[in-house]
Amino acid sequence: MPPGADDNGAFVTVESLYSGISRGTESLVFHGRVPKTEHSRMRAPFQEGDFPWPVKYGYASVGRVVDGPAELQGQTVFCLYPHQDRYRVPAAAVTPLPSGLPPERAILAANMETAVNGLWDGSPAVGDRIAVVGLGVVGLLVAWLSSRIPGTRVTAIDTNPDRQAVAEALGLTFSSESGPDDHDLVIHASGHPSGLETALGLAGQEATIVEMSWYGDQPVSAPLGAAFHPRRLTLKSSQVGQISPARVPRWDYRKRLALALELLQDETLDVLITGECQFDELPKSMPRILIDGRDTLCHRVVY
Q1: Smallest Cα–Cα separation from 155: which of 164, 206, 214?
Q2: What are the start-end ranges of the E strands in 108-241?
Q3: 289-293 contacts: CB < 8 A, separation 24 or more?
Q4: Which of 6, 78, 81, 98 could crosslink 92 through cysteines, CB 3.0-4.6 Å?
């Protein structure tokens, strides 16, 4: 069940501990670059205000339940809620953290959910040669998950050399340039049209390219000449708002989020959190994070 109404009418009050800034999407929102045609689909579950700007936006909140049903009282939960210190939502909108997952890391849940959904769309297999272009948080999570499939050869690609240390900390093979065009699956998550061109060039015969970038209102030119047709490539979009059709009979949003939280148990993933500020500093920090923070991965807000 996606966040919204609770069948039994129960609500919870949550005091925030941490929230995460999803830099890619929140930057597009901050700059008013959500196309008019997408204003409805791009609304965050508990957004206040209407696009283009200003709006209360965000979807990576971790807090403690201070009021609500007995089974949730005192629980630490994840909620797709904007940056706010205290809020009241339907009980169905919160997911308790699994035992052993630190709340400081749980802010990555929405990004992990996006990565899981992208791989469901890409359907990687044992032994696949996989390239991931664009090493933001989602790209790094996609590469990390892919590398855990037996026999895969995963290359993590980004033009920013500062991403190498993070990629290698996750056990990934890093490259700042494209390699051989023999990949079975290519994931593009850079958010830049030039990255899509790189991704297309990496795809081998009959390969699939999954486009996970969201460009907002930016026009994108895709180079679909040259080898695109002779190689019979498949270019496929992925968006976390809808579960891959092949998974719908067995999965729903709640199960997918629970899986994302379980996958965050590995402490290695702490390397994806590269900055932190107090909640009361957020008004002055947000422009710096979203405009100047090229090297920022996930920025954590502390309450």
Answers
A1: 164
A2: 129-133, 153-157, 173-175, 183-188, 203-211, 234-237
A3: 289/21, 289/23, 290/21, 290/23, 290/26, 290/27, 290/30, 290/31, 291/27, 293/23
A4: 6
Determine the Cα–Cα distance for residues 31 and 112; give it in Å rounded to an integer. 24
Q: What is the pTM of this model?
A: 0.92
Mode of pairing for the β-strands spanning 11-21 and 86-90: antiparallel
The two tokens of residue 281 are 């500093």
And the tokens for 218?
A: 């930016």
Query: Which residue type, as a one-letter code, is found at position 4?
Result: G
Using DSSP's 3-state secondary structure scheme, residue 87 falls into: strand
Query: And the tokens for 70?
Result: 């007995």
Residue among 85, 143, 156, 93 nearest 115 (CA): 143
pLDDT in tens, the chain (303 residues): 344 444 567 999 999 999 999 877 787 788 777 878 888 887 878 988 888 778 888 899 999 999 999 999 999 999 999 999 999 999 999 999 999 999 999 999 999 999 999 999 999 999 999 999 999 999 999 999 999 999 999 999 999 999 999 999 999 999 998 777 899 999 999 989 999 999 999 999 999 999 999 887 788 888 898 889 999 999 999 999 899 899 999 999 999 999 999 999 999 999 999 999 999 998 888 888 877 667 789 999 999
Cis peptide before 54 (omega within 30 of 0): yes
> Residue 275, exposed/middle/buried by CB under 10 A (0-12, 13-18, 19+)?
middle
Name every residue whose Cβ is closer than 8 Å to that of residue 286 and which is 6 or more positions away in sequence.
Answer: 21, 30
Going by C-alpha positions, the residue among 203, 135, 119, 138 that lies closest to residue 168 is 135
DSSP 238-303: --TTS--TTTTTT--HHHHHHHHHHHTT-GGGGGGEEEEEEGGGHHHHHHIIIII-TT-SEEEEE-
Contact 13, 68 (CB under 8 A): yes
CA 203 – CA 187 distance, rounded (Å): 10
